[in-house]
Amino acid sequence: MKNDSYYYGDNLHSHATLGWHLPEIEATLTEIIDKTKMPKVIEIGSGNGALIHTLKKKINIIGIEPSDDRVRIANLGLSQPCVYKRSVSDDLSQFGKFDVVISIDVVEHVLHPDEWAEKCYDLLEKNGVGIFTTTYHSYIKNLFLALTGKMSAHLDPLWRLGRIKFFTIATFDSLLTEAGFKIVKIKRTGRVPILAKSIYVVCIKE
Fold this sequence. Notes:
By secondary structure, the protein is of the alpha/beta class. It has one domain: Rossmann fold, CATH 3.40.50.150. The protein is built from 8 helices and 7 strands, in the order H-H-E-H-E-H-E-E-H-E-H-H-H-E-E. It has helices at residues 4-8, 18-36, 50-55, 68-75, 113-123, 139-147, 151-155, 169-178; strands at 40-44, 60-65, 83-85, 98-104, 124-135, 181-189, 198-205. A 7-stranded mixed sheet has the order 3-2-1-4-5-7-6, with helices on both faces. Strand 1 (40-44), helix 3 (50-55) and strand 2 form a beta-alpha-beta unit. It is globular and about 50 Å long. The N and C termini lie far apart (43 Å).
């Protein structure tokens, strides 16, 4: 059975999937920083704070996370706490609007992904940027997992707080466009594209 450390890492402020996401995120943020100098950023689902600790010295970023333990860990080593115990079901208006909303491999763990997408949209200023990822699925990848005997582990129903939604590029695109986003970039990341680990999306609120 997988536990939380599978996703958030056994080491303080590590993240099992950040390695292949980080170059894309930093490249996108570099483009934004060039245009707006210092954007105001929020991360939805900060986990143990891996991304915030990586980016905190470069940008003005806060995060929300529903787990008490992860909020505590995420704020360790920060001069001022910036990860707050909240979920997308809560009223987040106290935080104001943001230039960028980031949510990394969160939506597949959410019972109501439309609520997640709408909250991300609502948190953005006009022309704000959303940076989102989720686990990649397709017929060919699923067939490969089945033929290699890895599908059971991938879908593992015993994984505590594991994936409950399984997106293709088309369904992830639909989720975001139905919430009002305009897709700017959508690509597969991690491994060769046909067996990619993730879908990486950059979108804007027009």
